[in-house]
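PROTEIN DESIGN WORKSHEET
SECTION A - STRUCTURE
LENGTH: 135
C-ALPHA CELLS:
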C-alpha cells in the first residue's frame, strides 16, 4: 500500500517512513502542507499520515482540501499530532479516519503502536473499497 507522510519533523518523517517501508509499504514524504496536498493529488495514496502543525498550509486546511477534492475525498487520513486529545473529536468530525498522538511514538521502543494504527486504517479502507466494488 502507498502511504503519504506529511510532517515537518525530519526525525519523525524518517522514523515513520522506515517503519512503514520495513512493513512492506511504499512511502512518499512531504515536509509541509502545500507539498503534502500536491503529492496527495498527484499520487493518490492509500493513506495520508498528516501532522496538524506544519508550515505553508496547516494540517486542518490540508484535511479540508483533501475532503473537498473528489480525487482525494475517500483517502483515509490519520492525524498525527502533538495537540491534546480534546482536538480529536473535532478533527474526526472534519474527516480524519484516526487520531494518533505523537507522544505515543516511542521511537526508542519500536513503532508498533503507529504501525498497528496504520494497518488498522488500511484494512478498514480495503474492506470498504471491496464492499463498494461488489455493490
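SECTION B - SEQUENCE
RESIDUE ASSIGNMENT:
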Amino acid at each position: 500500500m502507498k502511504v503519504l507522510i506529511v510532517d515537518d519533523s525530519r526525525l519523525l518523517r524518517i522514523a515513520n517512513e522506515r517503519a512503514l517501508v520495513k512493513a512492506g509499504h511504499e512511502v512518499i514524504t512531504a515536509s509541509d502542507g502545500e507539498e503534502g496536498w500536491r503529492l496527495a493529488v498527484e499520487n493518490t495514496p492509500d493513506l495520508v499520515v498528516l501532522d496538524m502543525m506544519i508550515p505553508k498550509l496547516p494540517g486542518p486546511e490540508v484535511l479540508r482540501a483533501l475532503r473537498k477534492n473528489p480525487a482525494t475525498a475517500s483517502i483515509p487520513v490519520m492525524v498525527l499530532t502533538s495537540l491534546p486529545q480534546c482536538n480529536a473529536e473535532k478533527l474526526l468530525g472534519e474527516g480524519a479516519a484516526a487520531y494518533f498522538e505523537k507522544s505515543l511514538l516511542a521511537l526508542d521502543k519500536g513503532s508498533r503502536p503507529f504501525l498497528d494504527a496504520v494497518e488498522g486504517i488500511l484494512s478498514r479502507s480495503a474492506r470498504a473499497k471491496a464492499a463498494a466494488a461488489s455493490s
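SECTION C - NOTES
The two ends are 23 Å apart (CA to CA).
The chain has one domain: 2-134.
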